[in-house]
Amino acid sequence: MSNVTEIETSQAEKVAPRTGDAAVSVSDPTPDELRMLAPMERFAFRVSHRMNQGAAKRFWTFCQRTIGATWIRLATYNLMQVYGIDNLNRASHERPILLVANHRSFFDMYVVASALFRRTRWRKKLFFPVRSTFFYDSLLGMFVNFVMGWWSMYPPFFSHGGKRDFDDFTMRRLTDLCRTGAGNVIGFHPEGKRNLSPDPYTLLRAQPGIGKVVKDAAPQVVPVFVTGLGNNLYRQIKSNWTGGEKIRIHFGEPIDLSAYLTRRDSMRTYKEITDFVMSKISQLGECDRAMQHTAVRAVTDATEGKQTASSASAPPSVQHRPTATQNESS
Questions:
Q1: Domain 34-293, what architecture?
Q2: What pTM does this model have?
């Protein structure tokens, strides 16, 4: 494995201020930060970090666009419904785009990635920040990151076991990806974890971290609402042919956050940004709810119409023929 300090050629070497007069790279963790990780975590991070830079990232993006998007398409083509994709086509492709989405399933960002590659034509590189649990603490997690995400489950957050200091690097890296890089698309779940509520339109309370990233990096922010996915891979794939719930992806218009970007840096500002972003995701959810209600009503009306027509065309003896229960009661 080559040295992980290789920097993507399209980005200049940058540094960010830290406590005191010291400065650290936004592209690589410090030795002290790396020492926070367990050996398995450190190995998984080094591999993923390397795979998300330079020629390696371009190669895995090619695999993601061709192989990955194709197999997801094959597994979902009977169920997939995508709305608002033109909102992404109209966005500037010379600036990073931050997708902020609700979180219902393990597979939310996989289907979003497939929709992006199949329905848009501009060059893009996808990054999906994740909790380190599973993807970065086992060989199986690394394998899943490779075969399903083409290493795009990056950068990781190690917010457990006294490793929060490593997340200083993760925030630097995430902010830099959102600030510079034509074609960078970063997918983020502000809720922080999967929402297991039976009601897909009720969102969890979001974490303010995404508000800080938006405030510091000022990316284009596009809300996304995803529903219809389960968490069992076998059942999800099988439902494509057995008639499962439709998978609906709604892309909203880029959010105007200019009023927040001029405010002072504070937890209150970060929270207000996060809450505003979540309100836009919720609005997309309400649009989906209304569409589902209209669709159900249309099916009901059509069914009732057929029953009425059938009844009207039946012979009188059939129309008024009493049931067995009626005969017994009389």
A1: 3-Layer(aba) Sandwich (3.40)
A2: 0.83
